[in-house]
């Protein structure tokens, strides 16, 4: 590998046959250097070679007497997980107002929450609907972060619903329309908030997923789903309003979802939590979010749930 090249996290994941979460953990620990081009993290080929050779050397000396390793983790390098563009703005505010360096993961809500339980995420954004309670996020956090002290803060609220073709030619208006045999859906990946919302609505309305054409066809972000509708690959998808406007298709609002942030509480995260609280409560941050349109900041910064 030449030092003239660099790789995305996705490309290194494919090269090494490991998950992206494993790579984010290595970055967070300072074991794998990265640099950023805009909002994208990249890994220099020379640094990747160095890491691979170091792992080979470590394996070849495993039989040698144990020597303590010096801790290389940067305590001020944090990972923010989620896909909404507002998280990029939040990362910029965090870097401007604290010593933290913000890295981004674009993993879905459920998988990110599980990674937080395993100590691999610092700020996780959530929009997971629970059909049994009609509540967002809290039921899932209580089950997954069991025994962990945490705080759940509201980032914003936004509308979720159907992406449909311009003019809504099939007149799709409600969850029960998913029973129709003349429509093809494009789905989101398992663990994403949009997938959870769809699956919960199918359960509530007693619609078997196996009877929905296209249910197994998945995309990994809102824009890709919206684009699939725009190009005619599918008739309907589930997502947020913002992506529909970016792509130029119609949007049928069905629910207002609460988009929250969760952080683990301990001595080492106190500064981070206070930093995020101050940012969310600032009028400057809210004005910037409001200027984007399609977001509601009326309860931004409110503590939704907290354990002690």
Automatic annotation (TrEMBL):
Ranges in a coiled coil: none
GO MF term (any one): DNA binding
Domain spans labelled Helix-turn-helix: 7-55
Domain PBP: 95-279
InterPro entries: DNA-bd_dom_put_sf (IPR009061), HTH_17 (IPR041657), PBP_domain (IPR024370), SinI_DNA-bd (IPR010093)
Matching Pfam families: HTH_17, PBP_like
Transmembrane domains' residue ranges: none
Name under which the protein is recorded: Helix-turn-helix transcriptional regulator
UniProt organism field: Niallia alba
């Amino acid at each position: 590998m030449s030092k003239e090249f660099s790789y995305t996290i996705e490309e290194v994941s494919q090269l090494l046959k490991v998950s992206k979460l494993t790579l984010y953990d290595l970055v967070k620990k300072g074991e794998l250097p990265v640099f950023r081009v805009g909002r994208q993290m990249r890994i220099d080929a020379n640094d990747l070679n160095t890491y691979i050779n170091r792992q080979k050397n470590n394996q070849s000396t495993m039989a040698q007497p144990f020597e303590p390793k010096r801790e290389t983790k940067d305590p001020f390098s944090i990972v923010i997980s989620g896909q909404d563009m507002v998280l990029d703005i939040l990362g910029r505010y965090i870097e401007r107002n604290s010593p933290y360096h913000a890295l981004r993961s674009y993993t879905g809500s459920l998988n990110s929450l599980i990674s937080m339980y395993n100590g691999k995420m610092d700020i996780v954004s959530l929009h997971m609907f629970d059909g049994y309670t009609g509540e967002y996020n809290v039921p899932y956090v209580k089950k997954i972060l069991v025994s962990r002290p945490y705080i759940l803060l509201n980032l914003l609220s936004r509308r979720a619903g159907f992406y449909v073709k311009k003019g809504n030619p099939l007149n799709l208006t409600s969850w029960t329309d998913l029973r129709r045999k003349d429509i093809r859906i494009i789905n989101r990946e398992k663990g994403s908030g949009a997938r959870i919302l769809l699956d919960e609505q199918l359960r509530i309305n007693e619609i078997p997923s196996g009877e929905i054409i296209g249910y197994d066809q998945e995309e990994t972000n809102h824009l890709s789903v919206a684009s699939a509708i725009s190009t005619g690959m599918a008739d309907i998808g589930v997502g947020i309003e913002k992506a529909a406007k970016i792509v130029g298709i119609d949007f049928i609002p069905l629910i207002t979802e609460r988009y929250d942030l969760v952080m683990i509480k301990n001595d080492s995260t106190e500064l981070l939590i206070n930093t995020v609280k101050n940012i969310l409560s600032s009028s400057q941050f809210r004005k910037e979010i409001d200027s984007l349109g399609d977001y509601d900041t009326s309860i931004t910064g409110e503590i939704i749930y907290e354990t002690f």
